[in-house]
Hints:
This protein is an all-alpha fold.
Amino acid sequence: MLDAAVVVLRLVQFGGAMILFGSPLFFLYALSGQGPCAAAALDWPRRLLAWGAGTLAAGAGLGLLAQTSVLAGSIRAGLAPDALIAVVTTMAMGPSSLIRIAAALIALGLLAWTRPGPVLWSLCALLGAVACASLAWMGHGAATTGPGRLVHLAGDIVHALAAALWIGALAAFLMLVRRSGPQSPDADQALHAALRGFSGVGSGIVALIVATGLVNAWFLVGPGGLAGLLTTPYGRLLSLKLALFVAMLGLAAAHRFRLTPALAAALGDPAQVAAAVARLRTSLALETMAAIGILALVAWLGTLAPVSAQ
Ligand code: HEM
């Protein structure tokens, strides 16, 4: 039960950290800076980031307790101050959890007391970047020793940041297509502009994810461990992850080459726009479920012995 709790709390931390990094950057590069559809004028951006920071703080705190309990053998022993102090002072996972808690609490303070706008979004993205980078010390990213250590560590950090750009954008898109009845033509235009804005960034994100994913796979599977992708628990979970990644790619391509042009053609006709947005909403929900599936698999992968260690 404790092991499952560690996996779930890793997933919660991935989700919170990725929203805190990826969503505010989306506000800056995909939403207009001025006018009624600017992120500062909408009611949900600050709430989305507060939700991300809040789940990150709770996930990192409980995650540290759960991981310490696993190491100490029981929840009672894990809650003993000595056990916690030992984990925080002797294991990389300890300080990295404290860094995520601090980044999340500072973000919550900023979100409570700073006016929404580019400065707030930039500060939240910076704190989100620190939180995403610290994930490497909670999984296999920082476990490699020897000459490849820095290559794997850097590759894993960039991998988490690139993944956060995609997942943070997905969270914002889900808020943008939430609709209770017809919207202003400005809002429809803003949604189309955001889809166009992301498709420009999207190809770069995918290239970074694949390149750094291969770096991770080089160290954790290795050129000689390919058979392990089907014969080991770690390998099978990683293969399932890659299958979900291909599904996300397919959905993202449909957004770019079919659903976004369809929305453009519908602009100006409220009935057509409503139908186009409904199709987008379904497709974005499917893509988000695949993304959550990937993060859940990675939360589990980080607790298993990789193929290269077997
Ligand atoms: C949308 C797609 C993807 C997302 C959201 C994603 C996300 C992540 C995250 C959050 C981690 C954990 C980082 C850590 O614990 O330090 C990770 C690890 C990893 N990813 Fe990805 N990834 C994606 C695609 C890929 C692809 C395409 C590959 C392979 C080419 C890949 C291979 C790996 C490997 C081998 C690991 C290490 C797992 C471990 O900790 O043992 N990922 N990924």
